[in-house]
Amino acid sequence: MAEFLTTRGTSHHIESIIMDARMKVVLVSPFLQLSKTLYERLKDATKRGVVIVIIYGKDDLKPNEKNSLAELKNLELYFHENLHAKCYFNETKMVITSMNMYQFSENNNREFGILIDLKTEPDLYKKAENEVKSILEHSDNQKIHKQERNYFKEKINNTDPGGFKKVPQIPKMGYCLRCEGRINFDPFKPYCRECFSTWAQFENPYYNESVCHCCGEYTDNINMAKPLCAKCASKIQAN
After folding, report:
1. Are 100 and 29 contacting, i.e. CB atoms less than 8 angstroms apart?
2. CA 92 from centre of chain
3. Where are the beta strands (DSSP E) in the chain?
4. Strands 87-89 and 24-28
5. What pTM did the predictor assign?
6. C-alpha–C-alpha distance, residues 63 and 21, integer Å
7. Residue ranges per structural domain of the chain
8. CA angle 201, 204, 205 (to 5 degrees)
């Protein structure tokens, strides 16, 4: 029998679907902004040889999101302009829900869904799976490749005794460490207002966050005390 899920239950079972996948995991979400946790689960799944199929539809992906997805082996990415359905499944379990695969939805919205088990609800599971196949057939395959992006514009330094020299210019815009939204670049203020108010409840400068404040790429050991990845930090120091 299908099981009713609240917001927390929905997030939990989507993560479990990725973790338990052995051959394929399919993620259907109009809005796509993976949390660091789900991204890491997907990376682990690809190491097991799992094929990742993602269908999204409303907004184009940000350059940093494309670069992150490009690192996932066995990824099939599709775009469907009129997509509004949200469905996540592997070989045995499926979640149909109101929740987008969007970090803001997981943390802030009131969502619900249903969990379907292939063993107990084979007809329901197959009908939903066939509808996703139909959506897939009418979607555009998106080819993405990791690109080396220049986050720092160059300026001319004419004070160099050896002549003119190009040096990195600090960017004006950065990324919120937690929600990945665009904010003014300031390593001393690497959160948007909303995320900072949440962080300020505990004020742990070493609490691990999602992305580098400068380039917006997923990285490990990013926090209030160290908001920049090693590559961006080295360029800032050189400047």
Report:
1. yes
2. 24
3. 3-5, 24-28, 32-33, 51-56, 75-79, 87-89, 93-97, 101-102, 113-117, 140-142, 153-157, 165-169, 173-175, 182-184
4. antiparallel
5. 0.75
6. 28
7. 3-142, 153-238
8. 130
CATH of domain 3-142: 3.30.870.10
Strand order in the sheet with 3-5: 3-5, 113-117, 93-97, 87-89, 24-28, 51-56, 75-79, 140-142
Q: Quick one: 118 exposed, middle or buried, by C-beta within 10 A (0-12, 13-18, 19+)? A: middle
Q: Residue 43 has which token pair?
A: 């990376």
Contact call for residues 213 and 187 (beta carbons, < 8 A): yes
Tell me the HSE value of 34 on the side-chain side, using a 13 A CA sphere: 26
Match 């609800």 to its residue by tokens. Answer: 121
Q: How far apart are alpha carbons 123 and 134 in whole angstroms?
A: 17
- What is the per-residue pLDDT across 150-186, written as a single tens digit (0 to 9) for each? 655 555 555 555 555 555 678 889 999 988 888 999 9
